[in-house]
Amino acid sequence: MSRKKDDSLYQKTFSYKFFKWMKGEKDPLVGNVEMTPKKDPKEEEEETINERLREKQMMLEKIYDVENNKLILNFRKIYKFISILFCITMFAILFLNVSYLPPVGDAGNPSDNEVPVRYIEKGIEETGAVNFVSGMILDYRAFDTFGESNVLFIATITVLILLKVDSKLKKNDPEKYEKETNDRTLEPKKDPILQFCARYLMPVIVLFGICTILNGHISPGGGFSGGAIIGAGLILYLNAFGFNDTERFFIEKTYKVVCFVALTFYCLAKSYSFFTGANHLESHIPKGIPGAILSSGLILPLDICVGLVVACTMYTFYCMFRKGDY
Amino acid sequence: MDFIRNFPFFSIMISMLSGIISSILPKKAAKLLNLFMIITVFFLSLILLIYLCITGESFVYMMGHFPAPYGNEIRAGILEALMALFFSAVMFLSVVGGHKKLDEEVDEDRHNLYYILVNMMLSSLLALVYTNDLFTAYVFVEINTISACGLIMIRRIGRTYIAAVRYMIMSLIGSGLMLLGICLIYDMTGHLLMSNIKSSIEAIHASGQFRMPLVVMTTLISVGLCVKSSLFPFHAWLPDAYGYSTVSSAAILSSLVSKGYIFLLLKIIYRVIGFEVFVSTNILNVFYVFGLSAMIFGSIRAIRENDIRRMIAYSSIAQIGYIYMGFGLATDLGMEAGIFQILSHGATKSLLFIAAIGLTDVSGFNRAFIHVTGAGYRNKIAGIGFTVGALSMVGVPMFSGFISKLLFAEAGINVEGKSVPTLVVLAISVILNAIYFMKTVIRIYTPAPDSEFKEESFRFKDKLSYSLTILGFIALNLVLGMSSEVFNDLIHKGLEMFS
Fold first, then answer.
1. Do A203 and A92 reside in the same domain of the chain?
2. pTM higher than 0.95, yes or no?
3. A82 within a domain of the structure (yes/no)
4. What are the angstrom distances between the C-alpha of A201 and each of A69, A260, A315, B302?
5. How many separate domains does chain A show?
6. Are residues A54 and A202 in the same domain?
7. Distance CA B303, CA B369 (A)
8. A153 at the B interface (CB within 8 A)?
9. What is the ipTM for the molecules in this complex?
């Protein structure tokens, strides 16, 4: 209220709005700024829920016609019944079968033959690796392990085919590209606790992984386990600091080059070893003193190769499932 | 001459290395490397086959510095070399025939990924053929499965995704069953090397120990490999996977991937479990029954199909039924007929897929029968290719399909209790084959004057690679059909070397 002016004029002045705001009667932002209640990004809107339910109902009615189509109804019942029956039968047969097999850990078992005896008795002498498992998978049966690391490689290739965002999209339709690669809804937003922990944990994890790989021929560990540890460290770093930070050292080219170098080295080194072995030629790879860090011939470099491939594979899987790009 | 013994190892390693190198190459270089690699493998296998025919005995090759039960080992005999030769030849033709379609259907930056898959697929097939160790076989079965999924879904549309997921689930069930079987074998014998397992299993069988695990193990491995090679009741993944993937993938999957598993099964029958022990478990009778039903039901589904690619896919089920029916006869003659059918079907089915794609392309990319009317005039070379493939499938003399059906009939007639069903079902199946293939051939040569699709002016230069592929397949078919004695002789010798 003013004593000098009319009400209609007074309402337009600044002091009227100011006192009203002081009393808490008016929020100056209402009407000027768009304000919607903040919501959890994962929560589904009611509209989409309804749409989804409607589509499901429509599918049941139109395509399967559940009410009238007795065939499908019966089929579903019989299907459930038969699958349960099948599982139970499978269980029964396999359990019964196990009871006929030789007991675990018995000294006279057929699997206790000359093969493990030689691995244990002559393993160190023949491969130079104190860790028998490393000696077995990377020297005695290196061909299988080469196949196994190629399984990882081909699995990454298949995931790339399935999930990688088109490179054309970035040039032709940047808006859609942004939408496809936007993963902000899933990302913890610069969580200080996570960042603090990751800053101290990540170097330790990666160092531990490297240590596991490098000591693969001396102590338990090796390429597969060490690579998995490094991969986990990289994923932790990505979660704490986001893609902007990881892009500085890991892009698509990094993956390609690392895998190419590691697998090519593996292939060529092992080919040399197979070739000399099969043709009874002398192999010029020194075995070293068992127990030293630089020993056991090809096992150490091969462990490093396998470790690199495994770490890159794990990291790539994570990136592809989350964003579709590095 | 002893240097030739390195060739199996070289061909496996070359194909794997080229797969790895392709990952950093640009599209064109990857394509050239792939072709170069397949040709190299082809010639290596050819020389190996000639060498083995001269020496007349198989050999084992040590992979590394340690002899067999301690290290890995591969083995080469006439049958292995023949299969490697055949696989590389069909792979070359299928890949070349699908180049143009690959450009249309697959994103530019995924091409080198495709060639990685193809190279890895060939290496895993070669390893499955040459391996002498069950665990090596399992590792390469994994590579084979994953790259087959990739080959299906490289054409990124909804149906191939579903087909790939289906294929993956079924195929992993197969791998899982096979792995369980290998575990049981290891528990009973303590070996993974094929020749050692065989002698142990013979001893176990003679002593009467482990009766039940022996039967369960045989069943698990057989069913696992049947699921992976789509024998009749386990075929649900097949039509979509073959029908919607890009054409090279369909050709590779139908003529090579399933055949690789069948060859592995053959190897397990002869070299791991032993033919007599395998016969005594009666699994072969189950193969026989399923094979017969596949021959009928696959053909009936193919007749009812209204989509030319899916029709060819369903025909695969019937043809794989023939192979298992031959195995199920449980005689050497039946096995040989089955192996010849592997060659014959491999050569014919990829021809049909590649010819069919030429026919649908000139019909506005429509695959329904109504649209391909008269397509044989619009794309002449594809029409000829399709006709040859259809004639071979039906079993017209001069083509390979005739020989395989003849061999099946010859093998079946002397087997007690199985002769009548074999001959009757064979006859019914041939008639059913004739119904759906001749229906298609007649349709593509029915003139369609009011068709909306114009006749394509045929310039040999534009479609050089496609035409040469079709001609190559026709030649392969004629060679298989007209000089079948040579192949039968090789198969016979190879099977003798197996045991």
1. no
2. no
3. yes
4. 59, 29, 17, 61
5. 2
6. no
7. 12
8. yes
9. 0.91
